[in-house]
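Sample intake sheet
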Amino acid sequence: MSLFDFLKSKVFLKNLGLIAAVFLVVLIIAFICLNFYTRHGSEYVMPEIEGSLMEEIEDMEEMDDFEVIVLDSIYTPGEHAGKIISQDPKAGSKIKKGRKIYVVITSSIGENIPMPNCKDQSVRSAVNQLTNAGLRVGKFIFNIGDFNSVVVGQRYKGNPIEEGSQIQRGEEIDLVVEMNQEKYSTTMPNIIGLTEPEAEKKLWEAALNIGKKNFEGKKDIIHSRVVSFSPNSSSVTKGTTVSIEFMNDTKPNYNDKVKRFKMSEPIVEDTINQIIEINDEL
């Protein structure tokens, strides 16, 4: 029998059909196993847990299929300990059952850190030193001198504090700033739409003090953003106390409130010496 005749024979065609059938069955089984392994069709939408407390998400039914891992804890003054301030994956992401969810939470106690050196630096540089170390500016105290906007002293609870001294993260440091008599005014920074830490740092860098803070609704370190501030001036005196109003950016009227404030005319500050605090002691 020739090869051509064999390829046309019933025996060959029957065996070829069996081989094809076996291959198809194996392929189907492989796809079923692959789908089972990857949990195909079992994707979940990641819920929003930023702003929630760790004990709250333990009771959330939609979180039962995931493992929450705390990557870091950050001391945030005024915030409840255990509050989630960031999550990975983000809310709305499609994830598999059993996925690890990584979060950063707030801490109740600030760790001890060495006090940085803020003296003989510009106000902006001193503020960066403090905030990078996890400290806050309490207030600015101004002295008249030959230099302009140079930090000449740092105080903790009214007393001088030296570089390297142990201090708890989150504490407030007063900065003694030397100014000449001709340069007390500064441009009011634009803080609309910023979070509380972002707005505070911008004001501190302009040598402005933080006054009353009002939160419309529940305070949230991520979503509470500036919608207005006072004084609404294009130019203010260094050392001016600024009051801030915050609103959660998920509120329906958030954008309207921001728009109304932006449309208001800033007041030009003419009396630049009216609220300067002069202190002759370093």
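Comment: Residues 44-107 form a domain with the Trypsin Inhibitor V; Chain A fold (CATH 3.30.10.20). The longest helix spans residues 10-38.
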